[in-house]
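Support request from a user on the community tier.

User writes: "When I paste my structure tokens into the form, the page sometimes reloads and wipes my input. The last time it worked, I copied everything first. Here is what I submitted, just in case something in the input itself triggers the reload:"
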């Protein structure tokens, strides 16, 4: 990457505050949003995620931006999105007709299913880039939104001539696991004991030994790749008897456990050597929970709290993100928001803009709850689509003091959500089949009540029996009930059985948010 490219990008980014100010202050601001939901992450790690190709549909909620009658939106994907899925989102608009919105929507597929980032596929197609530039028309009133920001997204912003509402890739090191620990130190928040900037098997062994010196009673640690995501790239280490010293640690390292059954020790160490990583204490306790806080640093540098969530984690090591509830528990939500604000202020001073999320572990003892910052995801994540859906569907906003979301009518809102609702029995359901179930059952979102269910990642349903749902209620109990009812309705319409007619265990079919 040439220095001139970075300089040209920063110059382009200077236009973003002006575009954003107009966008925020004028509900009828004429502009173009370009949505590129490229999963520009380690493709080997991404391949471990079931139906990863359909995660490009997770940002389809952005079509609700078309409620502005002068807004235009370009949404790009690797493979075409089913027309019924597009219609489903457009019919959720409550201020303009779906037909009017459709005229201002440009759905673009590159017809390339290869396991590479969407941004790279777009950049390989100069004719497509020219068509996109023509549709954008005035680059002074346009901006780019991406799932995450890397050198590829920077190149794409420059190729289109529009600023990107996201992180400058020169700051990506702040989002690594090693970078996270340094940010937590600067912010003065509590985080697990550990060591960062490790780059080899020997470093891991020495790091684990040093960690036990600091924490003599430690029994488990986590070895993390700097660029792992969604819990993938995290390995759990169990300490051997202390008398065995570093030799025992090296021997026990061979028994690391991962989320994915496809990971091997040699592959993991090779990736660790290539991208670096950390070792840190595995937080344990009699009562442990895994909430998160979503934030956004505005183009003017203002850090803003967006949401808090109870995360539902699972998988072999219990560290895979499966779903969430909004908001986080009353008992410790203020702790999380206060620590997140401190982290946001540090990141703002570093020049970060855009959305990010901070994962926490909270533990309870006789003194009460204590928050431990675990990692920063400098990108959109699993909690982004459900909150964005709530925001756009209801028109409300977060009360930063309480952490509650309040609709325009004063009603407090709650939701339960997952992008991992799944069952073998759901395989074969086409989008039109799902929509028939939604309409006949009446579980879809209703503007009249501000409650109901939004479905997403619908394209993954037929092949993988998997989709996402956000169940919005006027209370936590109502949101939970909507989630449970949604599962019952889907099961009733698919018999809840596998292809051999045998009942599938509930824990294997979907994540129950409790």
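"...and here is what came back when it finally went through:"
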């Amino acid at each position: 990457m040439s220095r001139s490219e970075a300089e040209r990008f920063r110059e382009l980014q200077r236009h973003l505050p002006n575009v954003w100010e107009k966008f925020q202050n004028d509900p009828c601001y004429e502009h173009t949003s370009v949505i590129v939901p490229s999963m520009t992450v380690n493709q080997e790690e991404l391949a471990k995620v079931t139906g990863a190709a359909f995660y490009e549909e997770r940002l389809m909620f952005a079509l609700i931006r078309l409620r502005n009658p002068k807004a235009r939106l370009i949404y790009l994907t690797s493979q075409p999105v089913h027309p019924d899925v597009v219609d489903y989102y457009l019919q959720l608009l409550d201020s303009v007709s779906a037909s009017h919105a459709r005229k201002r929507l440009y759905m673009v597929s590159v017809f390339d299913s290869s396991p590479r980032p969407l941004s790279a596929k777009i950049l390989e197609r100069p004719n497509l880039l020219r068509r996109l530039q023509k549709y954008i028309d005035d680059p002074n009133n346009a901006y780019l939104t991406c799932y995450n920001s890397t050198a590829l997204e920077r190149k794409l912003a420059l190729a289109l001539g529009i600023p990107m509402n996201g992180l400058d890739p020169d700051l990506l090191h702040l989002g690594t696991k090693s970078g996270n620990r340094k940010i937590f130190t600067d912010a003065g928040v509590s985080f697990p004991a550990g060591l960062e900037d490790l780059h080899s098997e020997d470093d891991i062994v020495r790091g684990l030994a040093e960690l036990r010196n600091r924490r003599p009673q430690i029994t488990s640690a986590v070895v993390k790749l700097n660029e792992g995501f969604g819990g993938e790239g995290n390995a759990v280490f169990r300490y051997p008897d202390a008398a065995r010293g570093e030799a025992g640690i090296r021997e026990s390292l061979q028994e690391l456990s991962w989320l994915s059954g496809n990971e091997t020790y040699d592959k993991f160490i090779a990736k660790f050597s290539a991208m670096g990583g950390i070792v840190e204490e595995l937080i344990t306790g009699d009562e442990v929970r895994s909430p998160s806080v979503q934030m956004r640093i505005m183009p003017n540098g203002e850090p803003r709290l967006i949401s808090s969530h109870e995360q539902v984690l699972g998988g072999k090591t219990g560290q895979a993100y499966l779903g969430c509830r909004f908001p986080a528990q009353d008992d410790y939500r203020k702790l999380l928001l206060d620590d997140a604000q401190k982290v946001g202020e540090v990141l703002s001073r570093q020049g970060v803009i855009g959305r990010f999320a901070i994962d926490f572990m909270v533990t309870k003892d006789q003194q009460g709850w204590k928050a431990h910052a675990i990692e920063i995801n400098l990108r959109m994540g699993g909690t982004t689509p459900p909150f964005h859906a709530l925001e756009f569907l209801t028109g409300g906003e977060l009360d930063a003091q309480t952490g509650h979301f309040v609709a325009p009518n004063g009603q407090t809102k709650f939701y339960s959500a997952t992008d991992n609702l799944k069952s073998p029995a759901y395989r074969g359901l086409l989008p039109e089949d799902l929509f028939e179930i939604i309409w006949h059952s009446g579980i879809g979102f209703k503007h009249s009540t501000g409650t109901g269910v939004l479905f997403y990642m619908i394209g993954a349903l037929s092949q993988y029996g998997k989709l996402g749902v956000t169940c919005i209620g006027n209370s936590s109990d109502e949101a939970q009930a909507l989630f449970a009812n949604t599962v019952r309705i889907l099961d009733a319409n698919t018999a809840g059985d596998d292809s051999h007619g045998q009942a599938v265990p509930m824990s294997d079919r979907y994540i129950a948010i409790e």
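Agent notes: The reload is a front-end session timeout and is unrelated to the input. Residues 193-281 form one domain. The longest helix spans residues 330-349. Escalated to web team.
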